[in-house]
Structure formats: C-alpha cells, structure tokens
Amino acid sequence: MRILRTLCTAAALGLLAPAAAYAQVEPGGWTSYSPTFSEQERGCGQIDGLNFRLTCSTGSGDQRAERRYATYSSGTRQFEGSFRITSMTGSRISLKQTFNESGSGPFFMLAVENGGRLYRVGGDTIAGGATVGTTVRVNTVHVVGSQHRTYINGSLKHSMSSPGGSFYDKFGTYRTDSGSGPIQATWSGVQFWRK
C-alpha cells in the first residue's frame, strides 16, 4: 500500500517519465538522443518556434521554413513528430525529409496536397486525412544502408531500400517543384532515438 501511495504521489507530481519518452514504433533497444539543429528560412518561409509557414503563392524559387538536424551515417535512427496544418490554400508542400548528404539530395520527402493526401515525392500515396486542423503523427525508421520505413499514426505505410552514406532529418514546410503556398503547419512532440 505504501509503494502504491508513493507511485501515485510521484505520478501526480510529474516525477515519473511519461509514456511518450519511449519509441512509439518498433519497440526494443532504442536510446533517445537530442541532435543539434539549424533553421532554414528562404523566400517567403517563416519560422516561429515550431510554427512553420510559407506566406506566398509563388510556384517558383526556393520557398522553405525548416529545421535541419545533425548528420548521421550509421546505425538505425527513429524520428517522431506530429504536425497539424492550421491553414493551407497551396498544395504539394513537403513536411518531412530524410536527406541524403552524400550527393543524391532528398532521399525521402513526405508531402501533402490540398485536401489531405500524404504522398512520397516521386512516388505513391502514403496516407490520407492530413486535413486542416487534424494532428498527424509521423515516425520514420532509417536503417542506413538497408531500409527506410514510414509510419503514420503508428501504422506502417511505406518502406523502401536505403543506400549507405550520410543523412539528416528535416521538417517544416518546403515548396516542392510542383507545389506552391501558402501553408502554415505546427509541429509538436519531436523526438529522436537510435540503436
């Protein structure tokens, strides 16, 4: 009884680690870490904390508001974050990238069309439901030199082979070659693990 009271008191005071501290997909053997990042604002891109927006409707030029995280080149990495599009009159905007720094550029780009379709740039539909006001959780698991897997709201939606090399994660709002703004998206719950 005393142990139960102690646990309840600790939980009430917020002393116990929340469940969100653990990797949400592919459990087992993960270690959380906090990579450094830089911010990229170009064209009409604006960043305010975890709010990312493209304010213009131009269909040309480098329009981006993104966080770019530190490079990695080995092991297995997991990214997790949730986005909520708060306004969007544009379309075909990249929200999350796994970038190949070894020369081939964007390796994986998760983008959204007006109407809520999530798709891999250069590929097929990944999921629907990314409509204005809806929170969507994204997990990517990247085994360098082997495979890259994408989960939407905890369900595996896409898998592709991965080369070796150096990579980094990016998220925010980025106009694809066929896209245009405006868009505003807020990210939350961003976490990283490795093993």
Automatic annotation (TrEMBL):
Domain of life, per lineage: Bacteria
InterPro entries: ConA-like_dom_sf
SUPFAM superfamilies the UniProt entry points to: Concanavalin A-like lectins/glucanases
Keywords tagged on the record: Signal
Signal peptide range: 1-23
Protein name: LamG domain-containing protein
Annotated organism of origin: Kribbella antibiotica
Classification of source organism: Bacteria, Bacillati, Actinomycetota, Actinomycetes, Propionibacteriales
